[in-house]
Amino acid sequence: MRQDFPIFSAILEAPFGALGIRVEQNMVSELVYLPPRFTEKAPEDALSEQVMRQVEYYLDDPDFRFQLPLKPAGTEFQRRVWQGISSIPRGEVLTYGQIARQIRSAPRAVGQACGANWYPLVIPCHRVTAAGGLGGFAHDDDENGYHLGIKRWLLAHEGVTAYLPQSA
Question: What is the predicted pLDDT for the residue at 4?
Fold first, then answer.
């Protein structure tokens, strides 16, 4: 049975589950990682269709660069963190501490700002890790949880395989 999710302008099935797309006033207002039980939803408007196309391009080519109108979001501090994250090249990671040093802050505050990211994929917070390992993702640190599985998938998609689970 197909369910309708009116809060999303579109839902795109992805290798890691699904991605909910929200647009308001001709700007992207949020991207949300969703579990696989969410079924694809056709775009409601031209911008939602453009977002879906760009996400598909990224899923085919991790070097794709998003060009989307993002609705201003977050605090001034969060935007500084997100700007630092956006400068991390594909295939590389920085630690929360490295970002914190760049913006003269603390690693825990950087982690909180990463978790508050309204535009995952576009602002690639998956490229930020802990000094001693993968770290959390989307305010989740369950080692076997859904969100850290997405982070591992995205990093591997971009050529960073150090965080893939070790096979027994």
Answer: 61
CB of 29 closer than 8 Å to CB of 69: no
Residue ranges per structural domain of the chain: 10-60, 76-157
For position 167, what pLDDT does the model report?
55
Q: For the whole model, what pTM was predicted?
A: 0.91
Q: Which residues of the chain, if any, have pLDDT below 70?
A: 1-4, 166-168
Q: What are phi and psi of 21, to 5 degrees?
A: -120, 130
The span from the CA of 115 to the CA of 98, in Å, is 17
Q: 125 an active-site residue?
A: yes
pLDDT in the model for residue 143: 75
Q: Hey, what CATH topology would domain 76-157 get?
A: Arc Repressor Mutant, subunit A (1.10.10)
Closest CA to 127 of 81, 160, 83, 149: 160
12, 14, 125, 138: the catalytic one is 125
Q: Residues 64-72: contacts with CB within 8 Å, 24+ apart?
A: 66/121, 66/122, 68/28, 68/122, 69/26, 69/27, 69/28, 70/27, 70/28, 70/118, 70/119, 70/122, 71/24, 71/25, 71/27, 71/28, 71/29, 71/118
What's the token pair of residue 57? 């391009």
